[in-house]
Amino acid sequence: MKYVDEFRDPDTARKLVQQIQRLTNSIMAQRAEAGNTRPLQLMEFCGGHTHTIFRYGIEQLLPNAIELVHGPGCPVCVLPRGRVDDAVALASRPEVIFTTFGDAMRVPGSKKSLLQAKADGADIRMVYSPLDALKLAKENPEREVIFFALGFETTMPSTALTLLQAERQGITNFSLFCNHITTVPTIEAILGDPDMILDGFLAPGHVSMVIGEAPFQFVAEEFHKPLVITGFEPLDILQSLTMVLMQIHDGRTEVENQYKRVVQKQGNSPGQQAIKTVFEIRDFFELRGLGSVDHSGVRIRDAYARFDAERKFPVAGLTVTDPAGCQCGEVLKGLIRPWQCRQFGEQCIPQTPMGALMVSSEGACAAYYQYSDVQALKIKRHEGSGGKERAFT
Amino acid sequence: MSDVITLAHGSGGKAMEELIRTVFVSTFDNSELTNMEDQARFDLAELQQQGHRLAFTTDSYVVDPLFFPGGDIGKLAVTGTVNDLAMGGAKPLYLSCAFIIEEGLPIDTLKKVVRSMQDTAREAGVSIVTGDTKVVHKGSCDKLFINTAGVGVIAEGVNIRAQGAQVGDAIIINGYLGDHGAAIVDARGDLALQNSIESDCQPLNDLVQTMLAVCPDIHCLRDATRGGLATVLNEFAQASDCCMQVDETKLPIRSEVRGMCEILGLDPLYLANEGKLVAVVPSAAADQLIQTMQNHSAGCHSAIIGHVTATPKRGVLMTTGFGSQRIVDRLVGEQLPRIC
Predict the structure, then answer these.
(1) Where do the domains of chain A lie?
(2) Sequential DSSP letters for A8-27
(3) Contacts A360 to B, Cβ<8 Å
(4) Are B230 and B288 members of one domain?
(5) Weakest mean pLDDT among A134-138, A345-349, A376-380, B235-239
(6) Chain A residue closest in CA terms to B327
(7) A-chain residues within 8 Å CB-CB of B333?
(8) A222: distance to nearest CA of chain B, Å?
(9) How many Å lie between the alpha carbon of B272 and the closest alpha carbon of chain A?
């Protein structure tokens, strides 16, 4: 298939893997001289990257000295339980048609998920775009249509533009339950954590398509980590890893853009403008697994309050902590591997996820569960062995 | 007769009698039905001449929308049950059908569905010999639900079972994967994609009999309906305690279906099919079998997609086009489109 197969070509992959091997050997040799034998920890921020890495078995192709740390960039995973409870409460109102992207349906709240609420009679409908929700509002003027607005900057412009369209068209029975989150404060929180020992970053391609390259400069300048904006095909990931390793090898820390076919340096200014018009930064917002992060969420500006479901209807807004024993935070920071969590494959499985990372198919733990030999990983955990895991051990 | 189904059509009175006579009996048209008895009756000696064991199965059909590119609920209700029989190597003979109809359904819609059932039954060589009609209040079901049950006979010597896979066997599929699942997503119209994916809904009994003529020793056979190829292969691996290894580059998947899956974040391995079988056969017979299948209208794009091994473990392992290997597990819940 055009524009897809080119980015999955095995011959190009082999060449990139060889280059990665050479660079890694050279870096590890440099480090060994300085007495440092710690593996290289590289974080892919985005759930889309995590998904590609597992689907194409990229970890198996990499040298043992590279450890990929799967970051918190899966908006479904980091949706806190309290917000799911609020969504369920809104959706259960008899006058409401609650609309959501498909993969948010399964996220568990403290009592139930939207999927369970739907089974209990709530009118919850899966949509592919906020515009579908707006269309439903027009078709059902006697009902209130709420759109479950989720995601990092990637999905913010479409939410914002839909709200502006609703305003222009004078639609009054449409509102947003806004749970959009911002990338930069989330990365800052990870890098600012004293436990973190990351050597480099693969930055989210689609977020960058909206916000551009500039917001990531602080990673290179303040935290002195190499960062490469990365696309979502397997060759994108391998090429970006090569670029990060070259920076480490050369002692550079820069923001580089591997995903040039999509991401422009300045980002998408109409998209940025729409975000600015509609949203303002919240003082803090909870991210599941990471806890409360300053300035990590946005809310709807006062000028558009009539489109804000949180102001149109009572919303409890309670914080519900993750169950005891949940080690998502440690996994997100790369301190332990997903399968080293005590709950992995025990209490926490995709059917009944305990923690954030088992929730969506893009979550690191769900990906390990889906694509690995779970029993073998569990045995390995009980034996207390560390290091790199393979699909079949 | 009124234009729409009303509760009177399910009440046992005149309206129901007229509906049964003018819609069902006249369309399905066979002696068992025209007798208007409460049950179909078969001569055991006649059945015995056709086979060695009786196969019996049932399935219910609740697809939305009722009509979709490449098929409709009626065609599905016949092919689904015919195929369930065929996967045991049985020759399907007779079907029952039960309709649960939401009041308000246009009678023309029902007639169209019933005609489609009869066309498909004729194509598959089976008779629809007994039935039932219920009408429920508006909102109690979605337009029309159909249940069919079927009986067929299995010839002596045919021994197809999920436990039958052996190390070295070849894994075969009879054509493009995921067409039905993709056509249904498309027909729901939520995506406004412009493409022409049609459901693969088709009876497979004739193809299976043709396969058995060339290779009587088919080890495993199942149609890859809900849960797709991935689910069937996992069932075989589990039952036969072996590793099913497939090669991604050998999987026949239309580029339109791949494209839709890329957009939605779906995996074609889990998409439903309604006219695809997965066969595990002795490797020595595989090439000749594929040739025979490719000459059959239900198997033009048949392909060998992998083979059975003892190691590394019980399960399904796929070599990706990218050159790596990954486990293909069973699905958790239904596939849901991704946010971004």
Answers:
(1) 81-183+266-312, 328-382
(2) G-HHHHHHHHHHHHHHHHHH
(3) 338
(4) yes
(5) A376-380
(6) A371
(7) 106, 115, 350-351
(8) 29
(9) 18
A 36-95 near B (Cβ less than 8 A):
48, 51, 54-58, 60-61, 75-76
Radius of gyration of chain B (CA): 21
B340 pLDDT higher than 60: no
Cα–Cα separations (whole angstroms), residue A169 to A146, A165, A278, A291, B106: 17, 6, 16, 39, 36
Q: How far apart are alpha carbons A127 and A145 in whole angstroms?
A: 12
Tokens at B270, concatenated: 């889990």
- Distance from A328 to chain B by nearest Cα, in Å? 21
Both B95 and B203 in a single domain?
Answer: no
d(CA A292, CA A348): 23
If asked whether residues B115 and B146 sit together in one domain, one would say yes
CATH architecture observed for domain A81-183+266-312:
3-Layer(aba) Sandwich (3.40)
* Chain B positions in Cβ-Cβ contact with residue A373 (cut-off 8 Å): 313, 315, 327
Q: Give per-residue pLDDT as tens, A1-51.
A: 778 888 999 999 999 999 999 999 999 999 999 999 999 999 999 989 998
Q: What is the pTM of this model?
A: 0.88
ipTM above 0.95, yes or no: no
CA distance A352 to A81: 14
Mark B170-192 as b/e (b = at least 16 C-beta within 10 Å): bbbbbbbbbbbbbbbbbbeeebe
Q: Which of A132, A370, A372 to mutate to test the interface with B (most CBs of B within 10 A)?
A: A370
Cα B39 to chain centroid, rounded: 26
Q: Is A101 on the interface with B (CB under 8 A)?
A: yes
Is the pLDDT at A389 greater than 70? The verdict is no
Both tokens assigned to B32? 């068992």
pLDDT in tens, B47-69: 999 999 999 999 999 999 999 99
Contact criterion met (CB < 8 Å) for B338 and A370: no
Total domain count, chain B: 2
- Residues of A numbered 257-316 whose beta carbons fall under 8 angstroms of chain B's beta carbons: which are they? none
pLDDT at A117 (0 to 100): 97
Reading the block at residue B124, the tokens are: 């598959």
Nearest Cα residue in chain B from A156: B340
CA closest to B262 among chain A residues: A4
How many Å apart are CA B178 and CA B197, to the nearest integer? Answer: 10
The domain boundary, picked from B154, B177, B202, lies at B154
Q: What is the CATH number of the domain that holds B213?
A: 3.90.650.10
